[in-house]
Amino acid sequence: MTILQAIHDGIRRVNDNKRYLFIAFFASLGLSAVLALVVSNSIQSSLGNSLAADRLLVNFDGLWYRSFSATAQGLAKTFEPGVVGIGAVLKSLDAFITGQFMQEHAAVLKVGAIYWLLWVLFSAGFISRFVASGEDKPGFWASAARYFFRFIILAVMAVIVYVLAFRLILGGLTSLVNEWTRETIDERVHFVLTVGKYLIFWLIVWFVNMIFDYSKIITVVQDRKNMLFIPLRALGFVVPRFFKAYGLYLSIGLIWIGTMLVYWIVVPGAGQSSWPGIALAFLLGQLYILSRIWTRCLFWGAQAGFLLTESARPEDTGVEADKA
């Protein structure tokens, strides 16, 4: 199976389960709405019927924002101009790439943990549907419940690997860059080395993430219960097909980057003062979130089809071995 064939097959598998995509979307929307409501109430309490409220209808009021941010408590401290439009995407992306996402507000981290558990559940349901053939597909929620705790074990293993990667690999690369630029005054050299540092690091992290994706798929295909060595089995499948498997993963990553760039181009900024403008900005934002969910499922769908096709070939590495 070529990379393009795997992507085409993955799109078919994802689109055959559109109903569950929308369920995942509304679950995500509901969770984020709770946070938005808390911040909205704080902003309303701060503005009331003040002149600042009238000024904000026309343009951003920096004086009010400085006063609000100085006195904000709890989740309201997370409110800033960067949470609107593409700023929210870039801010999150920067925190994720640099490994600073754990420095977010405690309330955000708690809701993030709930969101993480929710997606462990959804991933079990989606992958079970993606690996099924014909019309006799397993129930989404029954499969999600069946594999949830096994996927939790894989997720915890992945978190441990990621933490070690950030501390050891990224820390080592950062020390190396600092050593090489200790006596360099040219900022361009430091910039190039820093970009190279993050590129090398994230190529490694993406590979690890791909291994755990295949670990989930193998768990469902073989209905495995002993999760400790599943990543090694996934590694055994990927390594002989490294360029195809990793090329598929990176190609889908490019699709995600493409959707982000389109959103960047079309999304309006924070200067929306009319209800149609606000509604349009909200709609475009939700379409982008839905595209993110679709792309996340495309990773699983395309990789599931790739594994099932490659495992049926004579040079199979043993992924269809007896259940353990």
What would you note in describing this structure?
By secondary structure, this protein is mainly α. The chain has one domain (3-311). Helix content is 76%, strand content 0%. The chain has eleven helices and no strands. The protein has helices at 3-15, 18-47, 51-56, 62-71, 86-97, 106-131, 140-180, 187-222, 230-238, 242-266, 275-311. Helix 6 (106-131) packs across helix 11. It is globular. The two termini are 28 Å apart.
Question: How do you describe this structure in short?
Answer:
The protein has 324 residues and is mainly alpha-helical. It has 11 helices and no strands. It has one domain (3-311).
Which helices and strands, and how do they pair?
Elements: H1 3-15, H2 18-47, H3 51-56, H4 62-71, H5 86-97, H6 106-131, H7 140-180, H8 187-222, H9 230-238, H10 242-266, H11 275-311
Helix pairs in contact: 1-10, 1-11, 2-6, 2-11, 6-7, 6-8, 6-11, 7-8, 8-9, 8-11, 10-11
Helical content stands at: over 70%
Which stretches of 5+ consecutive residues score pLDDT under 50?
A: 314-318, 320-324
Report the β-strand fraction as a percent range: under 5%
Q: What is the mean pLDDT?
A: 82
Span of the ends, CA to CA: 28 Å
